[in-house]
Amino acid sequence: MSLAELTIRELRDKLLAGECTALEATEACLERIGQVEESVHAFTTVSEERALADAEAADAVLRERGAETPPLTGVPLAIKDVIAVEGMPCTCGSKILESFVPPYDATVTSRLKAAGAVVLGKLNMDEFAMGSSTETSAFGPTHNPWDLAKIPGGSSGGSAAAVAADECIGSLGSDTGGSIRQPAAYCGVVGLKPTYGRVSRYGLVAFASSLDQVGPVTKDVADTAALMNVIAGHDPHDSTSATLEVPDFTEALAEDVEGLTIGMPREYFIEGMDPEVDAAVREAIGRLASWGARVEEISLPHTEYGIACYYIIATAEASSNLARYDGVKYGHRAGEPADLMDMYCRTRAEGFGEEVKRRIMLGTYTLSAGYYEAYYRKAQQVRTLIKEDFDRAFERVDVIATPVAPTAAFGLGEKLGDPLQMYLSDIFTITVNLAGVPGLVLPCGFTSAGLPIGLQLIGRPFDEATLIRAGYTFERRTDHHTRRPPL
Ligand code: GLN
Fold it and tell me: Measuring CA to CA, which residue among 132, 472, 181 is closest to residue 314?
């Protein structure tokens, strides 16, 4: 068995026991990257030399300090290309940032480094995190390791595919409307969108600032707890990061769902769902019930407005956030401009892809005078109703269990020509961002074609621990998360 196949916890044990070195683990991941990248294409940058040097340095720390070393010492991870890593390109999957190399680390990056992690490189994504398939990347799509003709999901498709394919031990993604959870489900790995404010956004390139969160993508729930322990917590550089105390998430790794009340929202079990996905999710909830959880049907009545509401708010925020890419300070600049306006226009016309342009136009429209009241303000009001749906539900239940997407991974190219179909695949994940609550996704089965199916567990604000506990119980008593793609 290759060291690249290990989980964070397994690798940590081996490193501390002296059964392998960080250098060997890093080499194993790099070797795996060499074997499968041509078909998977999960990475935009592989930083081989630096990773090897960092691994050697980690080995020195391990020799010197043993069990006292920080928790991720020598663990090879990779980071979505929307999160700044000092000295590595940060393309955001866009031509406009192809040459941008940030001179600083995002807070999550510096926390991973301080915990001893080895950064292998940057992971492919939909351009500026806008998409559900990783096909809008300017650098070509990522392929699903379970079936190379399928998309890995998006926008953190690279983060999920790299973990599923054992190219890294774990990764970070970002989630604005489902971008960690949907690819985690499609690739058969674990992904957590933390509560809005739980993890710093400093150094995360902004898409929709009131929705964006960074979170872990891992091989199991235990590793999600390990990464959350490192990345969560207040950051003075991000005024929206919460000052709440962060629990030790590994303490939630207990097999115990006795007395937990789980809500099944009827709006999430609807006609048109793939019957295999529906059956697997229901079965998973049934198993949680058989271990002592109480399951009841609930209603989140404003769910049907989620997509419309999200695509107004997210595009409005995006149009404003993306105004900074004007060719002046960094990124692509059009050559030989006739004047300043020509430079702005051609820089943006050349640098942005179709989907990003569509979002900028939609967002600019909904923010413009006259339409603002009709669309943007309405959407904010609907957002409050959606949040209140969750508040009310959490008076009765501890966890809400749902499917992640209506189907398993779809085919490359299948929805690319139809943006509305693409948007509809976010129907079960988007409301979680609008409400700001946490959502954990873990594997709960496979279709007859062998594609992974995910279960989504949604929690109260800042109660990631209960999700981790329920998810851990499920994974300890099932083996979906141990299956590997036949690459
Ligand atoms: N698929 C959604 C979108 O295209 C969500 C993306 C995300 O979470 N970053 O906006």
Answer: 132
Lowest-pLDDT choice from 162-166, 223-227, 424-428: 424-428
Out of 123, 127, 155, give the residue to mutate to test ligand 1, the one with the largest number of ligand atoms within 8 Å of its CB: 155
Across 95-104, average pLDDT = 97
User: Which CATH number fits the domain that encloses residue 216?
Assistant: 3.90.1300.10
Residue 136 sits in which domain range? 3-260+397-482
Owner of token pair 């070195």:
21
Q: For residue 208, give the ligand 1 atom closest to its CA.
A: 9
Closest by CA to 72, choosing from 26, 40, 31, is 26
Q: In ligand 1, which atom is closest to the CA atom of 359? A: 10
* Res 178 pLDDT > 90: yes
Q: Tell me the per-residue pLDDT of 13-40, one tens digit each, with 9 for 90 and over.
A: 999 999 999 999 999 999 999 999 999 9
Residue 420's pLDDT band, with cuts at 50, 70 and 90, is: confident
- Radius of gyration in angstroms for the set of CA atoms belonging to the chain, rounded to a whole number: 21
The kind and range of the H/E element at 156 are none
Helices and strands, number each (H, E), in the chain:
16, 11
Structure confidence by residue, pLDDT tens digits, 337-368: 999 999 999 999 999 999 999 999 999 999 99
Q: How many domains does the chain have?
A: 1
Whether 444 maps to a domain, the answer reads yes
- 418: Cβ contacts below 8 Å, ≥ 6 apart: none
Instruction: Give pTM, 2 decimals.
Output: 0.98
Task: Write out residues with Cβ below 6 Å of ligand 1.
Answer: 129-132, 155, 175-179, 207, 314, 426
Please check whether residue 386 lies inside any domain of the structure: no
Q: Is residue 317 part of a domain?
A: no
Does 477 fall in a domain? Answer: yes
Active site residue 155: yes
Distance CA 206, CA 238 (A): 12
Ligand 1 atom 5, closest CA: 177
